[in-house]
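Lecture notes, part 5. Sequence design as translation. It can be helpful to think of inverse folding as translation between two languages: the language of shapes and the language of residues. The source text, in structure tokens, appears below.
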């Protein structure tokens, strides 16, 4: 089956992030919507989001959503990293017409993350949750 150009672009950004930040990626997950879905460790959150917002050609200028998932009752993790909670940053690039999700797994004993409000001021609203 032939991929359409949208699928190539979306999977391409995941591959690009994976090659650029190979040491920072915990897991690269396929999703039904074909958006790049990258699991990273908390220590690389600012480095990777800063790159996607400021340094990449055709940047991800929009924080589309920021949410958290309670993973305590999840039974089927499909090779996802172990986590009690997962924080999900959904970014959008208008120029690329492309999305990327950055996921950060957290354990109950260490639930804090650095703020990304220096990159996306709108994150302030989400981070208060």
């Amino acid at each position: 089956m032939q991929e359409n150009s949208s699928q190539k672009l979306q999977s391409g950004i995941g591959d690009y992030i994976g090659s650029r930040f190979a040491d920072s990626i915990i897991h690269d997950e396929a999703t039904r919507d074909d958006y790049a879905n990258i699991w990273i460790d908390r220590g690389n959150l600012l480095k990777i989001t800063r790159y996607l917002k400021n340094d990449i050609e055709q940047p991800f200028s929009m924080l589309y959503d920021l949410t958290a998932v309670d993973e305590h009752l999840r039974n089927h993790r499909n090779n996802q990293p172990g986590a009690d909670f997962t924080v999900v940053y959904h970014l959008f690039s208008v120029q690329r017409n492309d999305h990327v999700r950055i996921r950060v797994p957290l354990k109950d004993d260490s639930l804090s993350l650095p703020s990304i409000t220096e990159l996306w001021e709108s994150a302030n609203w989400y981070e208060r949750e």
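The translated text above is only one of many valid answers, since several sequences can fold into similar shapes. Confidence is low (pLDDT under 50) at residues 1-11.
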